[in-house]
Amino acid sequence: NMKKLLILLLFCPMIGLSQQGLTIVDSLIHNGVSRSYILYIPASYTSNVASPLVFNFHGLTSDANSQMWYGDFRGIADTANFIIVHPQGLLNNLGQTHWNVGQSAGIDDVGFTETLLDFLSTQYNINLDRVYSTGMSNGGYMSYHLACTLNDKIAAIASVTGAMSQYTQIICNPVHPTPVLEIHGTADAIVSFNTILSGLQYWYNYNNC
Known about the structure:
Blueprint (H helix, E strand, L loop, with lengths): L1 H10 L10 E9 L2 E9 L9 E7 L6 H7 L3 H7 L2 E5 L2 E2 L5 E2 L10 H15 L2 E11 L1 H12 L6 E5 L5 H6 L8 E4 L13 H10 L3
Parallel strand pairs: 3-4, 3-7, 7-8, 8-9
Antiparallel strand pairs: 1-2, 2-4, 5-6
């Protein structure tokens, strides 16, 4: 029996041995409003090594916790050693959680993102040259918005079913070539595939592809 057990351990070294990181639910005050977020610190994190940071933005009507599970990067973070932050959006005038990419007066989500990044940089050893943004739908719109309005702090973005709004494109003022990934279905009935083409062309031109 002992021999069989040793053979099992030799052939299955990872069973039951996977490490999990630390999930932290926290908040900070920005513009007098309490803004919440969920942070994931991988088990591989060490303060001796600067880690990349990924912003993972939820979609319209969704929330940080749902996005943490729906667009789940935690397993990858454990092996690739990057920190993930899932910010929580505020309510729009219809009572829906959202990210303001120019449609909501008085909500400064860009400022919130920058404040959150600055705060996390004081708490953890973050590689400020490797800060990324991704998101689902409205979270994808937000990632494009950050690529334009916080470009000096965002290295690259990825959008899933999102797009770059016309407003974002008009005000876009990047300072460095910015890798962009768009994952989109041609049958998308909420954010039409045609909606993404103008924004992709913008980055195609700016990045001199």
